[in-house]
Amino acid sequence: MKWYEQNFVNRRDWVLDHLELLGLDANETILVLLIDFFNDHRIPVTMEILHKKSGLTMEQVDETISALCARRYLEIRASARKVRFILDGLYSTDTAKSERILDSSLFDTFETEFGRPLSNQEMMRISEWNRTTDKTLILYALRQASAYRKLSVNYIDKILSEWKTEGKTAEMIEKENAA
After folding, report:
1. pTM above 0.70, yes or no
2. Is the pLDDT of residue 12 over 50?
3. Which positions ≥6 away from 162 have C-beta within 8 Å?
4. Partner residues linked to 78 by β-bridges
5. 3-state SS of the chain: helix, strand, coil percent to 5?
6. pLDDT for residue 131
7. How many CA atoms does the CB half-sphere of 6 hold within 13 Å?
8. Which residues of the chain are in CATH 1.10.10.630 domains?
9. How crowded is residue 109: how many other Cβ atoms within 10 Å of its Cβ?
10. For residue range 46-81, what is the model confidence (pLDDT) as tens digits?
11. What single string gives the DSSP state of each residue in 9-65?
12. Is the dihedral of CA 78, 68, 121, 46 positive or negative?
């Protein structure tokens, strides 16, 4: 049995105690707490009930659920009888920490720069960069794409690939920009 499945563990208290580590925004927090509550009390989780209980619009619920899934905090399993919302990824923060996927500020930065919410594929790509590339380098690539008005994940991926091939580091780019 995993630590968070023990009877004495209050998962909702744990989530609230570790908000800064998890990087959850307000919408994500309320949905995580509701899903955990419903699972704990064996109440079927649906998008409609999340919408009704949270006060969020259906679109906000959908976007937030997508973001939680992209960050691997939430897994949705559908079977013939029911749909299950599983939060195991949220409680496996040691794994998430080592994979460096706990950085919602990076998603926020991209959404602000793009001027729109990110798609699931874009969030998955950014999460992959975050696991394999220095965050500062990712932000420099975003800045360069923005300067050329080519705000797309594919364009930024090309920049990062070129820099990797050239062996560029964030420090090298900082020196180039200072010159």
Report:
1. no
2. yes
3. none
4. 83
5. 70, 5, 30
6. 76
7. 8
8. 103-178
9. 16
10. 999 999 999 999 999 999 999 999 888 999 998 888
11. --HHHHHHHTHHHHT--HHHHHHHHHHHHHHHTTPPP-HHHHHHHH---HHHHHHHH
12. positive
**Which tokens sit at 74?**
């939430």
pLDDT of residue 93: 56
- Residue keyed to tokens 């010159």: 179
160 near 166, Cβ under 8 Å? no
> In which residue ranges of the chain is CATH 1.10.10.10 found?
3-95
Domain 103-178 class? mainly alpha
CA-to-CA distance for 85 and 32, rounded, in angstroms?
A: 10
Architecture of the domain whose range is 3-95: Orthogonal Bundle (1.10)
Report CA-CA distances (Å) from 143 to 7, 100, 146, 167.
Answer: 48, 21, 5, 19
* 178 CB burial (10 A radius; 0-12, 13-18, 19+): exposed
**CA angle, corner 115, sides to 50 and 145, nearest 5?**
130
